[in-house]
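We treat protein structure as text, and this decision shapes the records that our systems exchange. The tokens are whole numbers drawn from a learned vocabulary of local backbone shapes. One such record is reproduced below, unchanged from the form in which we store it:
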Amino acid sequence: MRYPNIVEFEVSGDYALFSDPLMRIGGEKCTYQVPTYEALKGIMSSVYWKPTIIWVIDAVRVMNPIQTEVKGIRPVKYRGGNDLSYYTYLKKCRYQVRAHFEWNKNRQDDLMADWNENKHHNIAKRMIQAGGRRDIFLGTRECQGYVEPCVFGEGEGAYDQLPELSFGLMYHGITYADEAYSEETKGKMTVRFWRPTMKNGVISFIRPEECTMTKTIKEMKIKSFTMEEDNFSGLKEFGEVN
């Protein structure tokens, strides 16, 4: 299905680390072979995001050969000092991404006035042209990324001639209360998993609500953007806000 507000861009970087957040608590870290849905959604949100919209990642095309590199890292311990760990990164990364946005129905009561499709679509395309509103990272902060416009499918990719490659069980993303899509996900943080398959270099993502393997992490409230003390701590230090 083709959406009227599709954006296409290329993201690249020297290194990337795409992994399940549960595997980042400490110790060794090892990347997936390909970007996760959540990582690409985070990149698109760094390019342009408003609480009015939800970015949906449609597909990613792997342009460079999948290569990894192990690095010795000295992370800071929780109780001070340093430790020695080995992180496995992807290197020389380049991907083409196709995405579109949809209205956040959880925000229609307070933000429906901002449902202007042409406005958000045009701003998103300009932000891609500018390289994003915020810094781009490929999975983790130490992996700087760069965004530029492209036409999805153009150019030669490393796996264009590979009919099919499966990656097994992978982390898909997290559904926060602000983007709940069902009664089961309302008021909760839910993690999603799926089994991606790359066909001729392209991974077509399923939608969050199509993920059948999910697990509730904790209860969560929708973030409020009203001028209340619970939402804006420290206001008293600066006097009354008008």
